Amino acid sequence: MYYDTIIRIKNASAVGKEKVKIPFTKMDEAILNILSKFRYVKSITKKGRGIKRILDVELSYRENGQPRVSEIKFISKPQKRVYKSYSDLYSVRSGYGLGIISTPKGIMTVEDARKEKVGGEYLFQVW
Hints:
GO biological process, one term: translation
Order of helices and strands: HEHEEEEEEHE
CATH architecture of the largest domain: 2-Layer Sandwich
Oligomer: single chain
Protein name: Small ribosomal subunit protein uS8
Helix content: 25-40%
Keywords: Ribonucleoprotein, Ribosomal protein
CATH topology of the largest domain: Ribosomal Protein S8, Chain: A, domain 1
InterPro entries: Ribosomal_uS8, Ribosomal_uS8_CS, Ribosomal_uS8_sf
Distance between the termini: 20 Å
Mean pLDDT: 96
CATH class of the largest domain: Alpha Beta
Structural class: alpha+beta
GO molecular function: structural constituent of ribosome
Radius of gyration: 15 Å
Low-confidence stretches: none
Largest sheet: 5 strands, antiparallel
């Protein structure tokens, strides 16, 4: 699930690692593509075949060496799912953060969901 992926990225960047390997799932790939688009991670490479596929994620850091992923807040959890309509979605940290939502049209950012006028399960926020 994406919980493990996000925590692996946060922990690896906190200790200064350059890359982290993550087991492949389509949901994780979609989330990582969004994170790379907004430069929270540098690049994603799919490796392996079949059951042994992994995602090799290169982490991104600021000029002063601080990790780009400084904090993560999980909104929807396995024990309590949180669903939001598009009118209830707002920007994260006044535009300095990123909210990820799972919609019927796929996984997208909160801003894209508002533009598409579609709601769904609010997964997490990252800044």
